[in-house]
Amino acid sequence: MQLLLDANFHRSESWGAGEGPNGPPHRPTARSWEVAKDVVKPGMVAWAIDTFGPFKSLGTDGIFSALLQKVKDLLIGPLVRVFRTSIACKYIQLEWRTAKVVFIRKAGRVQHIIVKDFRPISLTSFVLKTLEKVVDRYLRDRIPQTSPLHTNQHAYRTGYSTESALHAAVAKIEARLEKGGYAVGIFMDIEGAFNHTPPEVACREALDRGIASPLVDWMDELLRNR
């Protein structure tokens, strides 16, 4: 189990029950409240709740997504206030930081005896997932306006996928061959790219792309202390 944790959760630390980083919230500023209100809107919270499958595996808090959906109209107001406070204070509740991790066997493997034969599924609170979806939607809508992504980036973009990346590559190769030329390609596979990306790198990129610093600080808190 420790090998699986070390391989999939880079720079993680072991804590006992009830332990872990849980410092006090930061004192919010007028600017942080302004950003929080810009990110978290009632309509976006309602949209995020509706995107969940009703009976997906739940996190450690025992709250099903179906419960949020059934009483959505009653919860929108309180959730908006809680989410805005979380961002403004750059604080993630300890209960939200707790996840249940299940390691499942990768398909297509003859046997499952090494750590690479398994992949982790982290089951977190649907309340936190709702806020994450709201922030994700905000970033997807904001970044193309403040700092457009490169035309050749096929990840994290609506309407793009591995299929569109392959199509673009094949089209360039075919075009060269049809003209009697040749094509040289370099293919790189970065092992554990997401698992091993330091939070400071992701946050620096967000700042460079025009994302407000209070939101980036909240993202940093979420990435480091969960």
Automatic annotation (TrEMBL):
<dbReference type="InterPro" id="IPR043502">
    <property type="entry name" value="DNA/RNA_pol_sf"/>
</dbReference>
<feature type="domain" description="Reverse transcriptase">
    <location>
        <begin position="104"/>
        <end position="222"/>
    </location>
</feature>
<dbReference type="Pfam" id="PF00078">
    <property type="entry name" value="RVT_1"/>
</dbReference>
<dbReference type="GO" id="GO:0071897">
    <property type="term" value="P:DNA biosynthetic process"/>
</dbReference>
<dbReference type="InterPro" id="IPR000477">
    <property type="entry name" value="RT_dom"/>
</dbReference>
<protein>
    <recommendedName>
        <fullName>Reverse transcriptase domain-containing protein</fullName>
    </recommendedName>
</protein>
